[in-house]
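Severity: low
Component: inverse-folding endpoint
Summary: output formatting inconsistent between runs
Steps to reproduce: submit the following C-alpha cells with default settings.
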C-alpha cells in the first residue's frame, strides 16, 4: 500500500505539471529543450509539495517507536480508527506499543535517497541549466554553436559572481585558524545560502498572496466591480495591442528592406529565409512578390547587413511576433469575458430565470448543457449561487491567511505552543491518526504554495517576464518561472516544517528529524541564520500583508506612471469609459457579423431548394443535348467514311503528316517542348494532327 501511494502521487503530480505547461506553453512551436526543462522544474517542485506529508507521517511513526521502545510490529490501522478495537478492558499504553504503521508508510531508506535526488536535481536546474537555456532560447543566432556562444557570454558574469563569492568564502574558512569545516559543513553552508535567498523572496510573495487571493475571490462576487475592472483592463490591453502592432510593422519594414537588398545569390540569403519563416504569413506573401531577379552582391556601391545585425533582427522578429500574437489572443479572451459579464448584469433582472446569451454558441449543445447545465440552472449559478460561493470561499481563505500570519509570528515558541498548525498536528499525533496528519499537512502546504505560486503567475516585469495562459507564454518566461519555483520550494517546505515544529534547528526540540530535513544539514553550523534570520525575518509578513491590504504597491506604481486600477483616480475613470466604448464597438461588430450570417442562412433556406431544382433541370437538359450531338456526329462521320473513296483518304493522311515549311529539327528539343507545351511563340507552327484543345490551354 505504501509503494502504491507513492507511485500514484508521482504519476498525478506529473500530469498536473504537464497540464499547466500545456496551458501556458505551446507544444507545437516552442523548442523541445525549453519545454522539457520547464516541465522537469515544475514537476520536481510539485513533487516535493505532495510527498512531504508522507515524510511527516512516517517520521511521527518512527518517533513513536523510539519513545515506546522496540515492541511488536503492528499492522496498519484502518483510516477511520484511531485506537485499537478491543472487546476487553482498555490496555495501558505502557504495556503495549500504540504505534500503528501509517497506511502510506514508506520504508526508512527510501526517502533520504528520494529527497537527495529531487533536491540536487532542482538546484542544478535553477542555478546552472535553466539560466543557460534561458539565454539560449532568447538568442537570435542561426546556428547551435552561435546560440551556445551567446548563452555562455551572457551567463559569464552571472556564474562568475557566484564563483567569486564561493571562492572568497573558501579562502576565508581555510585561513581562519579556529574554523575546521568538513565537506559536510561546506555543503550545509551552500544549502543554507540558497535557502536564505529563497526565504527572502518567499516572504515577499507570501505576504502579497495571503491578502490578494481572498480579496480576489471577494471581488469576483461583486459583478459590478468586476465589470468595471474588465473595462479598465480592456482600455489598457488595447493600448498594448496597438503598440505591439506598431512594433511589428516597424520590424517587418526593416525585414522587407533587408530582404530586398539581399537577393537569392547572396551568401546571407539563407539567414533572411530563416527570418522570413518566423514572420506572419501575410507578411511573407508581401515580401515574396519581388524576389525574381538576381543581383551582383560584390558591387562596392551596395551596403549589405552583417551577420551580427541579422542575428539582432532575428531576435527582434521573434519578440515582436510573440508579443503581437499574445495581445491578440488576450484581447479576444478579455472581450469574451466582458460580454459575458454584461450578459450576467442583464439577466439578473430577468423574471423568467433563464440565462440568455447575447451571442449563442454556433456549436450544438452537448448532453451536459441539455440535461444538467440548462439555461435555468445557468441562471441560478451565474446570477445567484456563484457570488455566495465566492464569498464563502473568500471567508475560508481569509481565516487560513490569519492562521498563517499568526503562526509565522509565533512558531518559535514551543512552551506554550502558539502556532496553530503545530497545535493541530500535535493533537492528531496523540491519537496517531495518520490520515488526519497527512491531510492537515497537505492542506496547509497546498495553501502556502497557492499563495506563493499564484503570485509568481500574476507578477509581470514589463514585457520580459509574463506568464500568459492559452499557450501565449514565451520560452524566457517559462524558464524563469521554473527557476523561481526551484528556488522558492525548498525554503517553503522548511518554513512549513518550522510551523508544525518538525524542524529542531528552529524549535530546539529533541525530536527525530524528517528525511527532508536530514539532507538540508544542521543549520546550527551558522547560528546567526538559524537563531536569527529564520526566526525573525518571517515576522515581516505582517507588514507586507498590511501594505497589500491598503494597496500601497498599487499606489506607488500609479505615482510612477504605471496605470493601476484606483477607485478615486480620474485617470482610472477615463480608462473605464474608454474600455466601455471599445467593448460596445466590438459588440456592434459581432452583431453585424451575426446578422449577416442569419440573413445568408435564411436566404439559403428559402431559395436554396429552387436553385437546386433549377440547376438539376439544366444539367439534365445539357446532358441530353450532348448525347444527341455525339450520336449525330458519329452518324455524320460514318456517312462520310462510307462515301469517301480510298484516294481521298490517302490525301488527307498525307496532309496530316506533312511538316511545316519553317520547321527545323535541330532547334526543337525536349526541353523546349516541356516549357512551351502551353504557349507557342511566333515562327513555330503546330502540326495539323495536334489536338485542338491546345488552343484553350492558356484559358
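Observed output (run 2 of 3):
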Amino acid at each position: 500500500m505504501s509503494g502504491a501511494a507513492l507511485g500514484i502521487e508521482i504519476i498525478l503530480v506529473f500530469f498536473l505539471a504537464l497540464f499547466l505547461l500545456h496551458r501556458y506553453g505551446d507544444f507545437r512551436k516552442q523548442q523541445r529543450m525549453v519545454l522539457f526543462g520547464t516541465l522537469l522544474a515544475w514537476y520536481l517542485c510539485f513533487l516535493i509539495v505532495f510527498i512531504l506529508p508522507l515524510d511527516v507521517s512516517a517520521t511521527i511513526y518512527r518517533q513513536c517507536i523510539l519513545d515506546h521502545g522496540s515492541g511488536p510490529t503492528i499492522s496498519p490501522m484502518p483510516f477511520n480508527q484511531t485506537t485499537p478495537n478491543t472487546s476487553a478492558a482498555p490496555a495501558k499504553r505502557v504495556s503495549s506499543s500504540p504505534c500503528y504503521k501509517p497506511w502510506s508508510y514508506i520504508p526508512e531508506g527510501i526517502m533520504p535517497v528520494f529527497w537527495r535526488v529531487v533536491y540536487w536535481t532542482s538546484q542544478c536546474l535553477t542555478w546552472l541549466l535553466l539560466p543557460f537555456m534561458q539565454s539560449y532560447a532568447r538568442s537570435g543566432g542561426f546556428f547551435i554553436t552561435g546560440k551556445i556562444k551567446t548563452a555562455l557570454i551572457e551567463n559569464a558574469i552571472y556564474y562568475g559572481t557566484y564563483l567569486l563569492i564561493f571562492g572568497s568564502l573558501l579562502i576565508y574558512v581555510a585561513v581562519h585558524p579556529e574554523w575546521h569545516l568538513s565537506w559536510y559543513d561546506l555543503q550545509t553552508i551552500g544549502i543554507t545560502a540558497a535557502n536564505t535567498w529563497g526565504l527572502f523572496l518567499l516572504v515577499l510573495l507570501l505576504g502579497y498572496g495571503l491578502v490578494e487571493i481572498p480579496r480576489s475571490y471577494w471581488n469576483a462576487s461583486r459583478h459590478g466591480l468586476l465589470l468595471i475592472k474588465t473595462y479598465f483592463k480592456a482600455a489598457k490591453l488595447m493600448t498594448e495591442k496597438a503598440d505591439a502592432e506598431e512594433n511589428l510593422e516597424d520590424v517587418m519594414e526593416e525585414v522587407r528592406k533587408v530582404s530586398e537588398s539581399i537577393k537569392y545569390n547572396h551568401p546571407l540569403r539563407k539567414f533572411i529565409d530563416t527570418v522570413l519563416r518566423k514572420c506572419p504569413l501575410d507578411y511573407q506573401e508581401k515580401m515574396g512578390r519581388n524576389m525574381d531577379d538576381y543581383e551582383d552582391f560584390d558591387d562596392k556601391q551596395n551596403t549589405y547587413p552583417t551577420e551580427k545585425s541579422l542575428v539582432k533582427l532575428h531576435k527582434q522578429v521573434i519578440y515582436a511576433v510573440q508579443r503581437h500574437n499574445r495581445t491578440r489572443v488576450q484581447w479576444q479572451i478579455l472581450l469574451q469575458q466582458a460580454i459575458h459579464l454584461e450578459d450576467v448584469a442583464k439577466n439578473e433582472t430577468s423574471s423568467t430565470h433563464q440565462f440568455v446569451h447575447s451571442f449563442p454558441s454556433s456549436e450544438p449543445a452537448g448532453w451536459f448543457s441539455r440535461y444538467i447545465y440548462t439555461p435555468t440552472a445557468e441562471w441560478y449559478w451565474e446570477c445567484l449561487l456563484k457570488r455566495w460561493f465566492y464569498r464563502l470561499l473568500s471567508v475560508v481563505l481569509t481565516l487560513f491567511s490569519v492562521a498563517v500570519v499568526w503562526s509565522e509570528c509565533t512558531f518559535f515558541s514551543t512552551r506554550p505552543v502558539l502556532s496553530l498548525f503545530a497545535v493541530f498536528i500535535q493533537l492528531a499525533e496523540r491519537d496517531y491518526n495518520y490520515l488526519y496528519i497527512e491531510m492537515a499537512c497537505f492542506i496547509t502546504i497546498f495553501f502556502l504554495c497557492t499563495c506563493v505560486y499564484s503570485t509568481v503567475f500574476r507578477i509581470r516585469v514589463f514585457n520580459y517576464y509574463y506568464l500568459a495562459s492559452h499557450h501565449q507564454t514565451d520560452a524566457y518566461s517559462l524558464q524563469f518561472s521554473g527557476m523561481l519555483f526551484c528556488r522558492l520550494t525548498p525554503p517553503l517546505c522548511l518554513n512549513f516544517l518550522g510551523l508544525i515544529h518538525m524542524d529542531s534547528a528552529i524549535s530546539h526540540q529533541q525530536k527525530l528529524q524528517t528525511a527532508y530535513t536530514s539532507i538540508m544539514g544542521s543549520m546550527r553550523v551558522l547560528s546567526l541564520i538559524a537563531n536569527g534570520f529564520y526566526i525573525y525575518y518571517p515576522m515581516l509578513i505582517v507588514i507586507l500583508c498590511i501594505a497589500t491590504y491598503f494597496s500601497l504597491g498599487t499606489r506607488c506604481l500609479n505615482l510612477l506612471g504605471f496605470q493601476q486600477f484606483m477607485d478615486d483616480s480620474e485617470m482610472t475613470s477615463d480608462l473605464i469609459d474608454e474600455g466601455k466604448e471599445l467593448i460596445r464597438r466590438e459588440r456592434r461588430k459581432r452583431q453585424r457579423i451575426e446578422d449577416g450570417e442569419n440573413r445568408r442562412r435564411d436566404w439559403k433556406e428559402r431559395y436554396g431548394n429552387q436553385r437546386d431544382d433549377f440547376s438539376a433541370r439544366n444539367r439534365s437538359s445539357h446532358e441530353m443535348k450532348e448525347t444527341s450531338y455525339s450520336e449525330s456526329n458519329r452518324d455524320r462521320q460514318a456517312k462520310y467514311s462510307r462515301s469517301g473513296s480510298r484516294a481521298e483518304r490517302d490525301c488527307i493522311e498525307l496532309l496530316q503528316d506533312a511538316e511545316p515549311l519553317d520547321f527545323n529539327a535541330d532547334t526543337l528539343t525536349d526541353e523546349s517542348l516541356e516549357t512551351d507545351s502551353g504557349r507557342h511563340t511566333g515562327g513555330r507552327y503546330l502540326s495539323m494532327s495536334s489536338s485542338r484543345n491546345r488552343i484553350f490551354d492558356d484559358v
